């Protein structure tokens, strides 16, 4: 745990000893954000794969320290709180993913007679790395600071949407340098990552430019940059491979680095501004010029904090200090992405590698298997304008690929995970009436994305067999369950648009999950193409990402995935009691086969909060008339699997999804079916939470007598009237008002238990 | 040998037996072009690495059959006359290079129940390959035809600048298919070649589109396409890896192929039009729409022939049938590239991977170490408008990389070979007053290209040592000699522009070759960085492309490389007699060390016409007063090392360079120093050759009593006045007129032997 108060007092301390360091107090909800949450496991546990660096909401730039040599699954953000050295500050990062990628434009200040940039200088034990200490490291939204101990340099970072701003305070009597390394990536050796071409150009003694073209997890990315220094470069070296190009103004190659020397004999503060663009150096220059006009680091940092407060104050909460830290850090993490991919002039690299142009903002980083569940529903509530841009950005991929994103990075599909969960996101946006979403275009895209086969989506197999036979399509049970849900979403929009034939087709497909339900074992199980159950079957056995019927989970965890027809799942299970019993078993059976998928973590019995398939399951007791058990487990997850330490998440934070679960759950409700317009009520955790709906309208959730023990709903009112439903409509939330809960230590086994109180399938 | 008469009569024969095949007689100089010259070695010798397919002058599309599995050094064009099977027809090829690259958009017609496109279907023994026979194969400028024996399909190809046009005549009672293979490349396993992403999209039953992004020798190429069929597709399969996407309209991936079925039960002729673009599918569509409006294959083929005649008739010759075939095929080969890289709307992918726009045409494929010698000088004579575009295209790389091209492919530098020989090309263009060339921009580019170090051009080493020390920069002797020449070119333009300081600097550098001249051995030899000669030294020992002081040659071959100051080389050698003796030795010493570089071939003693370092050497006797020996050896090379067989070149044809040597030499003069405005006179071979200078003006070279034996100049007149100079100015040629030679069997040891008759260093 790294409480915010410690950070602030540390900052005050530093301001006394570090020349040039000035503590800028943060006010508003941003003050409760601790960017170190989720950045490093404690005692070998799990973290969130988050980064602590400086960024603004939904920005293109994430300027953050890279501590890893080569990230493994646990440190894809480049930073691990357990690491002891920093390679430098690169301008792009992913938050919470399981694959390491980006890390563009590494900048590192150093001192000393010589800085080595030959060999593999970003690796530990060589080159320009520096030790650092968490005692001399701070972070807040839009700002990061660290003392580079090997060089006695205080490094501070802030950012705008398209630019990074660095402030390096060098010690007196030092020889000051800045290293740029375009060969730096923490993804080497994976995904055939390779620099295709790169360049550093010295424009004048205050300005450098360049680019790199790189292939990796994203098939081809172009990152152009324009950098300005506020002090003159007095000497520099440009390097490709091990060749030093002395006196050159430019160097090209696939292993390009540079060292810039500054006259820091008396010590000084160097400011470095860096704009980036996926289109051109000229656009990088424009991006920087538009966003950072002055050499005023503190103003840019203040602006970044203000941007964060503008977004974070969309939910105003009362609660404990710890609740506020967890809640606002979670909300912060949900707003880190999707990431801007267009320049200030609207240009971007389209999904077919042509140059696109948008009037709005073009976004990418769509980790949809994760984020369709709660992050995107949260955006439809808090980010309506951006949601339209998200939809339009995904439609760009549809126009190019013929189908919508599965997992899209820098405009390119990587087919990570399964399903086509852009479909619920788009259908939800239409159903909720998000302005700027063109319904017919969305319908064409979701329909074709459900008919045009692509990796893990062989639709001809789907329609031929009515399920995925494992011997034809691996991950067959998980895909069957998730595809049925996506089909239900298509059917709902078809129905709304009066496309009866399509509705019937997709509604029929949405029921295919039944074909893998084994009523003998009461599990969803794999079949072969002849319709035979594949044996032996062990519901505790894990699959990963292929070669097994289940995806990053087991049959227990996938059992609950019929979000569009939970009453039918209750019925298949054997009715209310059997369903509750099975849920009870799920949350208590600790049996394992000895192996598990690395993504499964944060266990409560078989429930694994560290990965997404479990995320809606605590809320399912409501469908069988025992909402107090939902309240119990929702509270348990919030209280036990989220905290304020660097290990504050129970698994990959996954581009906002783990955080969005918390935000909804703390408010007291969760979108079990994210395209239904229905939230299912759990255990509200905050004294008061006011969602700002625009034009001064709010929807407020209040609790009376809430505490870590008072987790059970005793009664509720909506706008003063008694409320016994265990769910609430999105439209009720949008209408504004007050939802008040009276909480208590003991379950109220009467509240919300009527059949009419059970969540319905859809409000649309 | 494959005489043109045979080709024509074969065509006539085919027209009687192959349904749909119509012989279009070719008139004009194009009738003398035999595209099979240079396509395959005879008896294990060398060929030119040329392709026989259909293309127009300087086009983007080279639609040609690929016969090779994986080209090695000898078959980089994809086609080897010795091969027995054809994989298909891909739309882009290089002519005469030593590295295999391009091969985009393979199209192959097949018949039969099933066409396999799984596995590696373009490889011999699998998939869709077909046997073929030279007995049923024809080619002429802009047209190629072959009978695919496995399928009984007659395939004909023609092209426009940006589009290919296929005519496939299927047999009756066949099931007809067309295969598209976007994974086809004959460069796999080299240069880390990899498909980054590709797509085939079925737009409707007559139209398909797509693209591929590929990394290889060219670091990153984007090739978009738009294909139209004149008959409906009745069925198709789209494939990625081994997954068949039945019923899909689109497939994406890195191993994408497709099979399109046509209802050919009754047999028919299928027309296939394919536009390509390096920018977008939309541009590929525009390119096709602008260039091929009708479904009239013969018209497009006729237009292609007409375009060739328009270019080829720029030199009108009288001579023997064989001379005409060799001459016009050579001229044809010189006009195959540089290749158009911009679309009809002027868009192109710039050297920094942004989207460029030109008002003229943007070109690439600059094999400059080869082509600066004779091909580019020929363009300044025959292709003045294009020369300005070549210059401006090279300047685009300068703006991006900071220096001009060394070897540029698809706008990207690959640093193949040594020197910076875009400099003589640009200086020559300025000195000759080519319209549309901006002098100051050229000067900035050539100066910076001589100061900004890059691979094989470490200018700080150059200026520090006054030569390249072999232990610091390998290929040191070759680079020293060639760099000195490039520096001389910079000096000349500096002088013209009154930049005295620059002139002095580069003039001084142009003399650095002296520092490697060993007066004890009278060879240019390598030194180390301390100035010591590196021993042992063997003038017969070959270097290749690194690790040795000489580049693809030996000290004998590099001895002659002081093109900017031959009188000084004569002096260093010990005067006229010593120089002549050394030349005599060069052409007669057959000693070898047992090894040689593969590029060295076409030997006359140590002289190796198969590679460029020797190319000017036959002309050097003129500098020592014995022009008849130049006449002897120039005639010997023409008569013995060029012929009309598939093995008609003595080595890599090298993007027009081997051909340009022949064109100049047959005319009777050659640009020993390609940026001097001086041609050195050899042994004119043609009865009459009239160079069309525009506006009806011609420069005519006539010979009297020329034959294979009458190779010696007895006397000459220029515009009727006696002419004894062994050189002629470019400006004299441009002025028009008649240069007439009287030839004879015996040397006239008086003509051209006066000191005043010796070539001067420069006419500018």
From TrEMBL, chains A, B:
Domain Glycosyl hydrolase family 92 N-terminal: 32-277
Domain Glycosyl hydrolase family: 283-745
Cofactors: Ca(2+)
Database matches in InterPro entries: 6-hairpin_glycosidase_sf, GH-type_carb-bd, GH92_a_mannosidase_put, GH92_N, Glyco_hydro_92, PNGase
Keyword Calcium applies: yes
GO BP terms, alphabetized: carbohydrate metabolic process; glycoprotein catabolic process
Keywords: Calcium
GO cellular component: cytosol
GO molecular function, one term: peptide-N4-(N-acetyl-beta-glucosaminyl)asparagine amidase activity
Keyword Calcium: yes
Superkingdom to which the source organism belongs: Bacteria
PANTHER family tied to this protein: PEPTIDE N-GLYCANASE PNGASE -RELATED, SECRETED PROTEIN
Quaternary structure and partners: Monomer.
Protein name: Alpha-1,2-mannosidase
Protein's organism: Filimonas zeae
């Amino acid at each position: 745990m790294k409480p915010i108060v410690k950070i602030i007092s540390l900052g005050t301390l530093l301001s006394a000893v570090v020349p040039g360091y000035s503590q800028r107090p943060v006010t508003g909800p941003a003050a409760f954000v601790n960017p170190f949450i989720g950045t490093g496991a404690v005692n070998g546990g799990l973290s969130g794969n988050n980064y602590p660096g400086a960024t603004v909401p939904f920005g293109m730039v994430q300027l953050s320290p890279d501590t890893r040599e080569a990230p493994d699954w646990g440190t894809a953000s480049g930073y691990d709180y357990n690491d002891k050295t920093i390679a430098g500050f690169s301008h792009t990062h992913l938050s919470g993913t399981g694959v390491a990628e980006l890390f563009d434009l590494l900048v590192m200040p150093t001192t000393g007679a010589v800085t080595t940039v030959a060999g593999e200088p970003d690796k530990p034990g060589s080159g320009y790395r520096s030790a650092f200490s968490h005692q001399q490291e701070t972070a807040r939204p839009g700002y990061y600071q660290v003392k580079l101990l090997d060089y006695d340099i205080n490094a501070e970072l802030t950012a705008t949407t398209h630019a990074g701003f660095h402030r390096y305070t060098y010690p007196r009597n030092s020889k000051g340098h800045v290293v740029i390394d375009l060969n730096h990536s923490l993804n080497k050796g994976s995904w055939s990552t390779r620099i295709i071409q790169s360049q550093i150009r010295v424009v004048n003694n205050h300005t450098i430019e360049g680019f790199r073209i790189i292939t990796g997890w994203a098939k081809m990315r172009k990152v152009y940059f324009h950098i300005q220094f506020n002090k003159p470069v007095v000497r520099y070296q440009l390097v490709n491979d091990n060749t030093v190009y002395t006196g050159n103004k430019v160097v090209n190659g696939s292993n390009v680095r540079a060292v810039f020397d500054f006259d820091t004999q008396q010590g000084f503060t160097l400011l470095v501004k860096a704009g980036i663009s996926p289109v051109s150096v000229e656009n990088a220059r424009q991006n920087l010029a538009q966003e950072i006009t002055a050499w005023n680091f503190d103003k840019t940092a203040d602006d970044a904090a203000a941007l964060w407060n503008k977004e974070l104050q969309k939910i105003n909460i009362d609660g404990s200090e710890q609740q506020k830290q967890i809640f606002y850090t979670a909300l912060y993490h949900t707003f880190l992405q999707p990431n801007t991919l267009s320049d200030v002039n609207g240009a971007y690299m389209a999904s077919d590698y042509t140059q696109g142009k948008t009037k709005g903002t073009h976004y990418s980083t769509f980790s949809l298997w994760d984020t369709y569940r709660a992050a995107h529903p949260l955006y439809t509530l808090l980010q309506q304008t951006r949601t339209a841009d998200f939809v339009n950005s995904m439609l760009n991929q549809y126009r190019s690929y013929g189908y919508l994103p599965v997992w899209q990075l820098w405009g390119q599909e990587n087919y990570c995970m399964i399903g086509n969960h852009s479909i619920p996101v788009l259908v939800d946006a239409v159903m909720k009436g998000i302005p700027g979403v063109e319904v017919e275009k969305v319908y064409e895209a979701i329909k074709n994305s459900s008919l045009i086969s692509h990796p893990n989506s062989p639709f001809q197999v789907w329609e031929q067999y009515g399920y995925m036979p494992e011997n034809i399509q691996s991950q067959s049970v998980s895909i069957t369950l998730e595809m049925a849900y996506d089909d239900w979403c298509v059917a709902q929009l078809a129905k709304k648009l009066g496309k009866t034939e399509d509705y019937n087709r997709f509604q029929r497909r949405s029921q295919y999950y039944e074909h893998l339900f084994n009523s003998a074992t009461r599990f969803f199980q794999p079949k072969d193409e002849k319709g035979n159950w594949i044996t032996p079957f062990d519901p505790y056995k894990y699959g990963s990402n292929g070669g097994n019927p289940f995806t990053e989970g087991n049959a227990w965890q996938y059992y609950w995935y019929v979000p569009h027809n939970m009453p039918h799942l209750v019925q298949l299970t054997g009715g209310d009691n059997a369903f509750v019993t099975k849920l009870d078993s799920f949350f208590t059976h600790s049996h394992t086969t000895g192996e598990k998928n690395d993504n499964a973590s944060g266990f409560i019995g078989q429930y694994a909060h560290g990965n997404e398939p479990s995320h809606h399951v605590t809320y399912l007791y409501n469908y069988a008339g025992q909402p107090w058990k939902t309240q119990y487990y929702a509270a348990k997850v919030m209280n036990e699997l989220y905290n304020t330490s660097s290990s504050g998440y129970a698994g990959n934070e996954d581009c906002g999804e783990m955080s969005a679960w918390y935000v909804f759950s703390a408010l007291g409700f969760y979108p079990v079916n994210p395209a239904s317009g229905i939230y299912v009520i759990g255990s509200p955790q905050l004294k008061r939470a006011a969602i700002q709906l625009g034009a001064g309208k709010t929807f407020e959730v209040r609790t009376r007598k809430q505490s870590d023990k008072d987790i059970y709903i005793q009664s509720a009112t909506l706008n003063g009237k008694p409320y016994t439903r265990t769910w609430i409509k999105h439209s009720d939330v949008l209408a504004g008002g007050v939802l008040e809960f009276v909480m208590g230590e003991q379950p109220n086994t009467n509240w919300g238990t009527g059949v009419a109180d059970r969540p319905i399938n859809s409000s649309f």
